[in-house]
């Protein structure tokens, strides 16, 4: 389906929902759940993705009248998804990051299933992937919610400052300043961890 | 917490590369479908969104209901004016002051009473 037809179909469904046909919103969910889930999976612990996916679409429904057709509906939903992730981290800030062993059972199962599906035969590769996830979780746990979000959007996903600012609803300057500070902080954290690993007796 | 494999002196760029890879790896995990039903249940509880107000239609509904009332008022006023005539304010005040006991009698003013 061409982008133009997608936009028209979205507009038709949105109008139907605004006119009271609530059940039509499920069609909008099915059309755009891929985009939303991809964003949530990147920014949130996997065992939280389902709950937050519900939250994203409920927020989208509540504020549907504010979507005035400027830009694609998908982009509007993406912004809601990113801001929902940010709100999640603001609510859960200062929770201790957990190691792999203490991880939520559901999340471990999801990651394990994924690894099995990708047929990782090399046990060393498997262990390395787990460690990388743990390293990521540990490093991100030392950042504030704002630092986490800008680092993930700008640094990991390589979005421009303008794109990240649009998704977060911040100014471009704010995004650039926070990104710079977040990256410096991440380097400091990693260097400290490197030092501790090399000099265990100095802890 | 110790992190294995960092002690082999990986530089920051290598670690950052690992972090990026781990970050992108998460998006390949499959998520179930149950959340969709939960979302629609919450949305149905919210109910239909308030429809956009069509002010023209809204106005028309009320204006036509008031039309009979407006007609009756016009008839009454017309009757009053026909009996009183078009008096100036000062003349009307003079009448009221001269006939103070009947000052507020509409019937007297219209000449009917």
**Major interchain interface with per-chain residue totals:** A-B, 57 and 42 residues
Radius of gyration of chain A: 20 Å
Structural class of chain B: mainly alpha
The fraction of residues assigned to DSSP E strands of chain A is: under 5%
Helix content of chain A: over 70%
The low-confidence parts of chain A are: 96-103
Biggest sheet character of chain A: none
Q: How would you state the average pLDDT of chain A, rounded?
A: 83
Q: Report the strand count of chain B.
A: 0
Low-confidence stretches of chain B: none
What is the general shape of chain A?
Answer: elongated
Report the strand count of chain A: 0
**Looking at the chains present, what oligomeric state does this protein adopt?**
heterodimer
Helical run tally of chain A: 9
The run of helices and strands of chain A is HHHHHHHHH
- Taking the alpha carbons of the first and last residues of chain B, their distance comes to 103 Å
SSE layout and pairings?
The complex is a heterodimer of chains A (203) and B (113).
Chain A: H1 3-18, H2 25-43, H3 49-62, H4 73-91, H5 105-117, H6 123-141, H7 145-156, H8 161-168, H9 172-198
Chain B: H1 12-25, H2 34-46, H3 55-84, H4 89-98, H5 106-110
Explained architecture:
The complex is a heterodimer of chains A (203) and B (113). In chain A, 72% of the residues lie in helices and 0% in strands. Chain A has nine helices and no strands. In chain A, helix 3 crosses helix 4 (73-91). Residues 96-103 of chain A have low confidence and may be disordered. Chain B is an all-alpha fold and 113 residues long. Chain B has helices at residues 12-25, 34-46, 55-84, 89-98, 106-110. The longest helix of chain B has 30 residues, at 55-84. The interface between A and B is large, with 57 and 42 residues.
């Amino acid at each position: 389906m061409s982008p133009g037809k997608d936009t028209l179909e979205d507009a038709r469904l949105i109008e139907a929902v605004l006119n009271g046909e609530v059940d039509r919103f499920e069609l909008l969910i099915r059309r755009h759940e891929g985009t939303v889930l991809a964003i949530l999976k990147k920014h949130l612990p996997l065992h939280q993705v389902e709950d937050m996916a519900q939250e994203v679409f409920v927020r989208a429904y509540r504020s549907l009248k504010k979507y005035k057709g400027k830009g694609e509906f998908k982009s509007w939903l993406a912004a809601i998804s990113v801001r929902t992730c940010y709100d999640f981290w603001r609510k859960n800030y200062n929770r201790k990051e957990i190691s792999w062993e203490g991880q939520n059972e559901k999340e471990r199962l999801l990651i394990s299933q994924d690894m099995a599906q990708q047929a990782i035969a090399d046990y060393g590769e498997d262990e390395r992937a787990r460690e990388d996830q743990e390293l990521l979780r540990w490093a991100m746990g030392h950042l504030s919610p704002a630092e986490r979000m800008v680092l993930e959007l700008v640094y990991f996903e390589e979005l421009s400052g303008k794109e990240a600012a649009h998704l977060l609803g911040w100014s471009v300057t704010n995004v650039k300043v926070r990104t710079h500070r977040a990256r410096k902080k991440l380097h400091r954290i990693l260097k400290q961890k490197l030092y501790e690993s090399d000099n265990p007796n100095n802890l | 917490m110790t992190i294995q494999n960092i002690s082999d002196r990986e530089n920051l760029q290598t670690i950052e590369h690992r972090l990026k890879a781990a970050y992108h790896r998460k998006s390949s995990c499959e998520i179930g479908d149950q959340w969709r039903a939960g979302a629609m249940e919450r949305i149905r509880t919210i109910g239909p969104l308030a429809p956009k107000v069509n002010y023209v239609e809204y106005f028309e509904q009320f204006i036509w209901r008031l039309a009979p009332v407006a007609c009756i008022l016009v008839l009454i006023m017309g009757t009053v004016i026909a009996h009183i005539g078009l008096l100036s304010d000062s003349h009307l005040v003079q009448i009221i002051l001269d006939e103070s006991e009947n000052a507020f009698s509409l019937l007297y003013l219209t000449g009917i009473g």
